[in-house]
Design goal:
The chain is built from 13 helices and 22 strands. The chain has helices at about 10-20, 50-60, 70-75, 80-85, 95-100, 105-110, 125-135, 160-170, 240-260, 290-295, 305-315, 390-400, 420; strands spanning about 1-5, 25-30, 40-45, 65-70, 90, 120-125, 140-145, 155, 180-185, 190-200, 205-210, 215, 220-225, 230, 265-275, 280-285, 325-335, 360-365, 365-370, 375, 380-390, 410. The strands form five sheets. Strands 10, 11, 14, 15, 16, 17, 18, 21 and 22 form a nine-stranded antiparallel β-sheet that branches. Helix 1 (about 10-20) links the parallel strand 1 and strand 2 (about 25-30). Keywords: ATP-binding, Ligase, Manganese, Metal-binding, Nucleotide-binding, Purine biosynthesis. It is an enzyme of class 6 (ligase). GO terms for molecular function: ATP binding; metal ion binding; phosphoribosylamine-glycine ligase activity.
């Protein structure tokens, strides 16, 4: 089959790598792709948001299967544009992607269907939000309602910080229109775990667990980012917790969406907090997490096309989803200055070191070709992922492999997966 992959980051590179392994696939196109995805796909210069030209391209090339991977086009209805033309497409429709596109919608859904989560209030008036904070317990969490590249969440320790947060989100519009509405949420404590699940609208199958590191600096300091590294599986996500989440979070969410007339087909990302009172849902995403995909996908035994087709066809109950009994760690190589300001266009050296390594990957997040060489083209540049028999080994392998790659302004955290050593 001919496959069109919509997206151009590290998540899409990991997906492209898996799709290329499928014996069902003869040709992959990526829009817009990146320098790493170009190893597996023909990259075409069409924006992920340009539904009209994406559909036109898919028809011209007689594309058999489309994968819409990023959050913005899903929220904007790009998957709908393909589906409405009868083109088989993996990714939720706009009316289901709202589970990520609106924090207020997802919180109301959790409340209505008794899905365990933090207490919250929603505001579209900054003055009312400020008034509410006067009596609220600190620390507290402020969330821009809409999509903000994974950065629209502020944890405020004091009333002054919270007031400043309201100003940033709702008045200064730091996250643009995403901050027209805001969710104010109780602060939960515990370990965070990410669980990505495949869903066909009725059946939901969780993948192996992972844990992301959001903050820019070591020891979880600095600003929130799109993710500075991940490890999989989480040693804190036990079989008992997995059973509880399946019964109280994953299946109820899919059932709730169907009851609301918003059948969810695709990847449902569940961000969990393992609190002293049991697991609770922090947030949903309507797609593979990035960089979570970079540690979860390499551990999956199944043909990714088989699983994605089953999600589209409603036959996921027939799939025996399996993962290797190993571990993976991803360390993000970023541009110094990210997530605020940074320079681009620096040549990247050493990528050839990954060519013949089975358990090591350099997933490109922000790269492009310039004058026949690969250069930096984003804040997060490359996710260095390594496998190992256990988490400690995978972590050592990943950090060793970060030394194989060099570029000016290279920056990374040095404590990804440190929690593993603290067990």
């Amino acid at each position: 089959m001919k496959v069109l992959l919509v997206g151009g980051g590290g998540r899409e590179h990991a997906i492209a790598w898996a799709v290329a392994k499928s014996p069902k696939v003869e040709k992959i196109y990526a829009a817009p792709g990146n320098a790493g995805i170009a190893q597996y796909a023909e990259c075409v210069d069409i924006s992920v948001m340009d539904a009209e030209n994406l559909v036109k391209f898919a028809k011209e090339k007689a594309i058999d299967f489309v994968i819409v991977a990023p959050d913005d086009p899903l929220a904007a209805g790009v998957a709908d544009a393909f589906l409405d033309e009868g083109i088989k497409t993996f990714g939720p429709r706009k009316n289901a992607a709202i589970i990520e596109a609106s924090k207020a919608f997802s919180k109301d859904l959790m409340k209505k269907y008794n899905i365990p989560s933090a207490a919250y209030e929603t505001f579209d008036d900054a003055e009312l939000a400020l008034k509410y904070l006067e009596t609220a317990k600190m620390p507290i969490v402020l969330k821009a309602d809409g999509l903000a590249l994974g950065k629209g969440v502020l944890i405020c320790n004091t009333l002054e910080e919270a007031k400043e947060g309201v100003k940033e989100i709702m008045q200064d519009k730091k996250f643009g229109s995403a901050g027209n509405r805001m969710v104010v949420e109780e602060f939960m404590t515990g370990r965070e775990v990410s669980v990505l699940c495949y869903s066909d609208g009725k059946t939901i199958k969780p993948m192996t667990s992972a844990q992301d590191h959001k903050r820019a600096g070591d020891n979880d300091t600095g600003l929130n980012t799109g993710g500075m590294g991940t490890f999989s599986p989480s040693p804190f996500y036990t079989d008992e917790i997995a059973d509880y989440c399946m019964k109280n979070i994953y299946q109820p969410t899919i059932d709730a969406m169907r009851a609301e007339g918003r059948e969810f087909k695709g990847v449902l990302f569940c961000g969990l907090m393992l609190t002293p009172d049991g697991p609770k849902i922090l947030e949903y995403n309507a797609r593979f997490g990035d960089p979570e995909a970079q540690v979860v996908i390499p551990r999956m035994k199944n043909d990714i096309i088989d699983v994605m087709e089953a999600c589209v066809d409603g036959t996921l109950d027939k799939i025996d989803l399996q993962f290797e009994d190993n571990a993976a760690v991803c360390v993000m190589l970023a541009s110094d200055g990210y997530p605020v300001s940074y320079e681009k266009g620096f040549p990247i050296k050493g990528l050839e070191n990954f060519a013949d390594k089975k358990d090591y990957f350099a997933f490109h997040s922000g790269t492009k070709f310039k004058d026949n060489e690969v250069v930096t083209n984003g804040g997060r540049v490359i996710g260095i992922t390594a496998l190992g028999k256990d988490l400690v080994t995978a972590r050592k392998n990943a950090y060793d492999a970060t030394e194989w790659v060099s570029f000016d302004n290279k920056y990374m955290r040095h404590d990804i997966g440190k929690a593993i050593d603290e067990q």
